[in-house]
Amino acid sequence: MLSWASRTLVAAMSTMTRKPEVLFVLGGPGAGKGTVCGKIVKKYGYVHLSAGDLLREERAKPGSKFGELIESHIRNGTIVPVKITCSLLDRAMQNSEVSHNKYLIDGFPRNQDNLKGWTQDMAEKVDLKGVLFFDVSEEVCTKRCLGRGATSGRSDDNLESLKKRHHTYINDTMPIVDHYKKLGLVYTFNGEKSPGAVFKAVEQVLTKIGW
Question: Topology of 20-208 in CATH?
Answer without folding.
Answer: Rossmann fold (3.40.50)
